[in-house]
Design goal:
Order of helices and strands: HHHEEHEHEEEHEEEEHEHEEHH
Number of strands: 13
Number of helices: 10
Radius of gyration: 25 Å
Shape: elongated
Largest sheet: 11 strands, mixed
Distance between the termini: 65 Å
Strand content: 15-25%
Helix content: 40-55%
Length: 305
């Protein structure tokens, strides 16, 4: 069984980029840290760090080992917090991962208010569109947008909301092309497309389904680009309702075929089971779910029209 103290030494040395900086952070002589790292390397039988008097470099296996060691230390910290019963006031670090659109448009205004409400909670937000293994990489919370249901895993999944998609265009474009009154009249309109798929599938909530074939004019795999192209009058975009509702309310965009919606996106919060027991993680998760479940201003009013 590996010594957790040696894992802590290794993680700190790597995170600080050397023995001297890690020694200052831990208050331990760098010679002691070097000795502990050597003992760890001897125990596992591999070199984790190549070091000389002038250089310090983590080996390839050392990078892989660091990722797992850091996750183990987080789990050890979580176990300690549970044992201590830190129930009086949430405290500690909560690590969150989210994609760029969620971070920019939903989390950016929420997290500072949350941090102000809980001064002993430290929030670390990692913004990335890559696949993230939240257990191995040490995250407490992940927020995911997804079209298909998420696979069954050992993670706690808490559904936040479902956001249907609407067809939208600028008022100038509608004045020029006319407002379609039924799906068939929208065929051939200039399409602002997220992919090479050339159709939009719509449903009216009563079982009817319609297929629209726009004339593709503009492609972008990023939502803001499609929204701005629609505002500029290039054509019709299919956007998540919460994302375009404020612009419809202001008149910058117009909703086309308001009785019809396209397949939307679901938002789910995920947590590892054990970390979800920490008071700090629970309070952040509950706050995010409550806030992100709310529709943006104007969305319900527009949807009712």
């Amino acid at each position: 069984m590996l010594n957790l103290n040696d894992l802590l030494v290794f993680v700190q040395v790597v995170d600080h980029g050397g023995f001297a900086a890690a020694g200052r952070a831990l208050g331990i002589p760098k010679s002691t840290l070097s000795k502990r790292l050597s003992e760890l390397e001897k125990a596992i039988g591999v070199r984790l760090v190549q070091r000389t008097s002038r250089s310090f470099a983590v080996t390839e296996v050392g990078r892989d080992f660091h990722r797992h060691a850091a996750a183990m230390l987080i789990e050890a910290e979580a176990a300690e917090h549970v044992i201590k019963g830190r129930l009086a006031e949430p405290s500690g670090t909560v690590r969150i991962t989210a994609s760029l659109p969620i971070a920019q448009f939903r989390l950016a205004p929420l997290l500072p208010r949350l941090a102000a409400s809980y001064p002993k909670v430290r929030i670390m937000l990692d913004v990335s569109d890559r696949f993230v293994d939240i257990v191995q990489e040490g995250f407490d919370i992940a927020i995911r947008n997804h079209f298909a249901p998420l696979p069954d895993t050992d993670l706690v999944q808490r559904r936040i909301c479902y956001d249907p998609a609407w067809l939208v265009a600028s008022a100038d474009y509608i004045r020029e092309k006319g407002m379609p009154s039924r799906p068939a009249e929208a065929n051939g309109l200039d399409g602002l497309m997220a992919s090479s798929a050339g159709v939009w599938m719509l449903h009216d909530g009563e079982g009817a389904v319609a297929e629209i074939e726009p004339s593709p004019r503009y492609f972008a795999n990023e939502t803001v680009s499609l929204r701005e192209a629609a505002r500029a009058g290039l054509g019709v975009a299919c956007l998540a309702s919460s994302f375009c509702a404020p612009l419809i309310e202001s008149g910058a965009l117009v909703r086309i075929l308001p009785d019809w919606t396209a397949r939307g996106v679901a938002t789910t919060l995920l947590m590892p089971h054990r970390r979800g027991q920490l008071p700090s993680v629970r309070v952040v998760a509950d706050h995010l779910i409550a806030e992100l479940s709310r529709r943006p201003p104007g969305a319900d009013l527009i949807n009712a029209r």
